[in-house]
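Loading example: each entry is read as two labelled lines plus one structure line.
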Amino acid sequence: MRPQELSAARQEFYSEALEMLEQMERLLPAMRAESQRGDASNEAVNGFFRLVHSLKGLSGMLGFSTISFLAHDLESLLAELRMGRLRFGEELAVLLEECLAAFSELLEAAASGGEHAVNVNRLLGRIEELVSSHRWLETLDLAEHLELPDALLGILTDYEKSRLSQHMRQGAGVWRLQVDFDFATFDVDLEELAKLIKGFGEVITTLPSGGGGAEDRIQFELLAVSPLEAAELGERLSESGARLLAVPYRRAPEPAAMSEPLAPAREADEPPVLRELQSVRVPLEKIDMALGAIGDLLLFKTQIAHLVDELRSHSGLGSLADGLVKGSRRMEKSILGLQDRIVQMRMLPVRSLFSRLAHLAQKLSRELGRQVELRTRGEDTELDKVVIDEMTDPLLHLVRNAIDHGIEPPQERERLGKPAAGRLQIRASHQGKRFVIEVEDDGRGLSGALIRRKAEERGLVGPDAVLEEQDVFGLLFRPGFSTRDSVTEISGRGVGLDIVRGQVVKLGGAIEIATRPGQGTHFTIVLPVTLAIIPSLVVRVADQTYAVPMSAISRTYDLVAGDVPGGIFDEGFDFEGAILPVYRLDQIFELEQGLAEPPPYLLVAHSAERRVGFLVHEIRGREEIVIKPLGPHLAQARGLAGATELGDGRPVLVLDVGALVDEVTAARAPAATEALP
Amino acid sequence: MSETALLQPDAAQPEAGVLLFGLSTELYALRIEEAVEAMSLPAFTVVPRMPGYLLGVCFRRGRLLPIVDLGRRLGLRQSFRSSLLQAARTTRPAVLVARTRLGELGLLVDRILRVAKVPAAALEPAAAAPPFTLGAVTAANVQAHLLDLEAVGRLEPDGGGP
């Protein structure tokens, strides 16, 4: 738009916007009346909503960002109202009136070129608060909203937080237990208490607390969850002598936190016209080429380091060398910053993926005669475009499973005392550098006993095997667990889950399942946010160099230094209480040159719940790598995820640790401990 | 059809191009559309658990290029490994980058000779041809095996070939 056109368009906008505001004002009393009558037609609300939507689009297009933001937030508030998730009460009426007043103030200011002089933050905050107040229980990390001392919250691991949140979502209460035990026996006492609680809840964490008391006693504070009421919990714990404190929620999440994504992230919500004005489409390939160029830049750093060494060896040039080091560090920092920004370009919000899932859910529930209430959350969460593409089929599969086999037909649900409409929830969130997506239904679920029986019938597990609960659920992901005939018998879970898991593992992620008969099934998938840059270990195996993604490595040991704490046995080594088998990578890869020299380094690798040790000859260091695909000719190559470049122009192969772990555990190849140094 | 007839350019007969290259004592032809470029042998990396005829992978313009040792792929190396033939390999080995349906593939050959014209009809696959060839063509007065590039490019993991 040329400047004259823009200013003409703006002139038109003022009169049009004023007209809209007048219409909105007229609709307000009608909305109130509609709500009082219990009129479900929502005619006035819909009219108001459309006006706000147009105002948002128009103002955004002409660059009135404050008006557009306010309209945007108001729109989400009205959407809740339209969906019947929010009631038209006095508070809302007042808020709407204030919004209209703010709009006319903004228009006036905008006409004189000073739209930004009007501060609407307080208003935005109140809208956010109202929108979130009735659904904040489902926000990403419930643990963050507990009234706990920061010191305690701070030491919770991500896993503990997620366990906590998971229990809370299922309606469990959170409790602080204070106990003191005799110094001589506290370990046994604690264990017994944990065992007791396991019967009706879970201990999330245990901390010694410095509190007073007698010298020969030690105080602990336990954080536990349980669905039991306070009175019953107190009774069950009475013998342990524990003091019980309920942990309440904090007030609804801080508006500040909720309104944070107000800034540019909102673009995705705006009309397509607006987005096109502000962005260009770039093929993924070009972004990857830019990333490749960055990789080359980082390689120069190594060359500079060599140069520095050389300079140092000449007397009198030391200060020159120091200057060079400083300069190259600064350069490295800006290159890494640039790298981050380019990686960002590969990121897209998962919104379009979610709408595909919603579409499928709708279609299936129609076809199968189910009633499904779909709730999605975190549509704005960003994820690597490639990961989104690769995860689409597995997620469609999980949704299909949930509706086809999980959620019961309405009559059956009513008989069971459940609401006729099954609830299917899909949530996306970021946890640090990981992306978490959950698919949860409140359908039939599965019992561990049934899964186990089926697995035994199919010979996947021996009748004597001792399995933890998570191991039993893990059986669902094993190839060959389910066949078509087992679908109806076992509520259908397990259909193709091995394929879903395979895909997740291929992307460097993990999948977990929690299910209870009659209560539903909950899948949690954790994925790396981007595939573009992968922190990796560079290792030597025989005379070959490989890169191993760190995401698949729990830790490394130097066997010559003898630092394996649990010791090494014939059948493997002791890692965190489990005996893990060990394999030589040179033998797996049939590298003849390696046979003579026993590899002295141990990598503890994992693929979902399985862990093994791999032996390598040397650990050369850490590199952030960009993976290039092997290409279709080498699709059959096993155990490799791709290749990368580390400086000499030769490809360095990147190991697919998940596939290797699966391969050795499936083959149950003999462990290689006899070759240990 | 006599050899001279083939060499007569005929306006009515459409022509096609082939790239002639040598491997051991044999001559091979690749359709010109399938040839991308020739380069000297680059630094490459061995891919574990792939058959020996896959020499390895290298980078070409930022992408991975698999390189097949064509002599081993065709089974020529084992049968003709004599000093005479070693001596006959006068030119430095070159990698011929070829375009297959699955993407680009490098072929390690002994020497690249020239581009020649043949009647298009001569490139039709013959009914019975030795493995990895589509038949014989006569170009520039010599007879060469027409390479079945797609067959060469179907790499099988371990033990799938010589």
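The radius of gyration of chain A is 30 Å.
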